[in-house]
Amino acid sequence: MSSILVINGVNLNQLGIRDQAHYGQIKLEDINSLLKNEFPEVSFSFFQSNSEFEIVNKIQNAANFDGIVINPGAFTHTSVAIRDALESFKKPKLEVHLSNLSSRENFRNTMITTSKTDGYISGLKEIGYLAAIYSLLKMITQKNIN
């Protein structure tokens, strides 16, 4: 059984309240349930924080996980600290964003954390999380075969 840490950053606790055109109507708890139901063979740990410090600590203490899916929220545009923590995590990791960042404000096109992940998914709302877990599981399997 693979173990995956799903980290959600700043303001993602406000899903369902925030701009639904960008983020959809789903709440974070619903995304977590969706993942558990879709991938019952995976041991998930879910974490959300509005604190950059707490997210960095979570990544630094993630050695027992097979991989990470992270949605840093707005920290993707600003956090060198989260970027550096992701760089130190040597197992598969993917970044996901609910909204299509390339169609939003110009400042959202600067993605500091993304370059230290193995890839990213943007604009598919909650489906992006499903795609990220599916892809991460494939990456973990390939790594274990090689």
Structure description:
The protein has 146 residues and is an alpha/beta fold. The chain has a single domain (3-145), classed as 3-Layer(aba) Sandwich (Rossmann fold), CATH 3.40.50.9100. 36% of the residues lie in helices and 17% in strands. The protein has five helices and five strands; from the N terminus they run βααβαβαββα. The chain has helices spanning 20-23, 28-38, 52-60, 80-88, 127-145; strands at 3-8, 43-48, 67-71, 93-97, 120-122. Strands 2-1-3-4-5 form a five-stranded parallel sheet, sandwiched between helices. α4 links the parallel β3 (67-71) and β4 (93-97). The longest helix is centred in the C-terminal third of the chain and has 19 residues, at 127-145. The radius of gyration is 14 Å and the shape is globular. The two termini are 18 Å apart.
